[in-house]
Sequence to fold (255 residues):
Amino acid sequence: MPSRWRGIADDLRTRIGCGEWAPGERIPSQRELTRTYETSPSTISHAVAALVSEGVLRSDPTAPRNGMHVRARHLIRRPLDGGLRIEHQRAVTDDDTTVGIFEADTGVDEVDFRATYTHDVTDADAATALGLPVDTPLLRRVYRYALGDEPHQMVCSHLPETIAQAAGLMDETAEIKGRGTIAQLRDAGITVDRVEIELEARIPTVLEVAELAIPNGVPVVVQRRISFADGRPVAVHASVVPGDRIVYTLTVDLP
Fold:
């Protein structure tokens, strides 16, 4: 016989799926649910905790007394190569638009973007992808994107320090909205002429779970990009997005 809390969790999940409570809306309090289901507060707590772990419900960590709300999931559909094409087009035409590449690619207007720079790091995986010795000094840039109050993706970018210095990438002020790495490399006289893209789905790391507020059981989709100039790898990027927040599309024109 299934546990009482599982049945209540199933019922709440169904009611949410049917739209009884809209995304972002507060569900009844624990006291109200206890009366509705004629059970104990601990049973309700167990059922609600299960839905939180699934990503169905969420609480506001800054105001926990406000109760539980239906999680507003921001599912983004974007072409696999869309951002890359926008970035390249802007670089070769010296487009000085202030519309972010992410915004132009997804159509999303309200995006919270943050960048952090760390110089002289060593990263064996990134160095190997760049065809360099594992102890080569690199610039690591981490970009964080959030939609509303929900983290959406985290991007980790590595460049050799020699290239970063030539491109003037000294700190976060070098990040100009609407310009991407391809344009920054052109400032150093490096023309990116090929990009390799690889997709991987995997279990998130502990850091990714914390950074991206990933519910239990949700994998991440990792998009790795290696940029080449004259056959030489010059930059490597890895974007990490929770699997329930992204749909990548690809259109292939056939002759």
Notes: The chain has two domains: 4-70, 76-249.
